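In response to reviewer comment 3 from the previous cycle, which asked for concrete evidence that the modeling workflow produces usable outputs, we include below a single protein chain processed end to end. The sequence was submitted unchanged, and the resulting structure tokens are shown without manual editing.
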Amino acid sequence: TAMISNILYENITIDEPEQWGIWIGPAQQTGQPCPLYWPIVDRSECLMSGAQTWVNITLKDITINNPIKSPGVLLGNSSNPMQNVIFENVIINNPGSKPWGDDFYLCDGIAGIATGTTYPVPPCFTYVD
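The workflow returned the following structure tokens.
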């Protein structure tokens, strides 16, 4: 087992990312449960192990401008979901819609909170004023 905890990413601007602007989840690499060709190749999968505990991860004052793809991947494990993931003022300007459409994020196995000016709010997050 492993633990990833107490992580803060703050005051970051990303312009026109070609891949995912935000990725919280398993490493995407050849020969692993999340291959590099996922989700491009039909029937490919990206799996998150339940052996890791992720807790207290904060993205604060993050701006992503004109991403080519959907803003991101937020992928935990349903048997051991990520806890206390916070997006505070995470703003995606002109978010791409492929491949996640109007949800903008792949979002699973995470208990998240969005605050401030966060837009768009990931579908597995609760917005709190």
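The first strand starts at residue 2 and ends at 15. We consider this sufficient to address the reviewer's concern, and the full set will be provided in the supplementary archive.
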